[in-house]
Each structure stands twice: as C-alpha cells, then as structure tokens.
Write a structure and sequence with these properties.
Distance between the termini: 69 Å
CATH architecture of the largest domain: Orthogonal Bundle
CATH class of the largest domain: Mainly Alpha
Helix content: over 70%
Number of strands: 0
Radius of gyration: 20 Å
Strand content: under 5%
Oligomer: single chain
Number of helices: 4
Largest sheet: none
Structural class: mainly alpha
Number of domains: 2
Length: 90
C-alpha cells in the first residue's frame, strides 16, 4: 500500500511539473508574438503616462529602454521590441 502511495505521489509530481513547463512555454510564445507597440502599451502605460515616440531620438530611447528594462522587469526581447517600435515611430 505504501508503494502505491509513493508511486502515485511521483506521478502527480511529474504531471505538475509538465503543466508548469507548458504554461511557461505558452506564456513565452504569447510574448514572442506581441509587437513592440502592444508591449509598449501593456508595460509602459501601467505605471505612468509615456512620452510620444517623437519626444526622444533613437539613442535616447535605447538608454531609456535599458533603464526601464530593469525598472519594469522586462525581458531582453520585450525591451528590444519596445525600443525598436519607439525608434521606428520617429
């Protein structure tokens, strides 16, 4: 009986890990499919009113992007897409 409980516990643990990994993969895929404009709207506007893309030049946006990546806890991909969007809108 103890063996069956032990095996059942292992099986449940494996399924839990699989579900968590699939969830993480799905979330990464959703972010990968988002445009810089979408990410800008979802991330930058949640804390403050953002300036328009024409308020800063490309080099300034790159510097701001690096700073805000840390402050907003953005991934490299997200920050890069947002900065590319802002630079392309100049």
């Amino acid at each position: 009986m103890i063996k069956i409980k032990y095996i059942f516990g292992i099986v449940i643990s494996i399924f839990t890990v699989i579900i968590i990994l699939q969830s993480c993969t799905a979330q990464k895929a959703m972010i990968a499919n988002k445009s810089g404009a979408q990410l800008w709207g979802e991330n930058c506007l949640r804390c403050h009113n953002t300036p328009t893309p024409t308020d800063f030049n490309d080099e300034e946006w790159k510097t701001i992007g690096l700073h805000m990546q840390d402050r907003a806890n953005l991934t490299n991909v997200e920050a890069t897409k947002i900065v590319e969007f802002l630079c392309s809108a100049n």
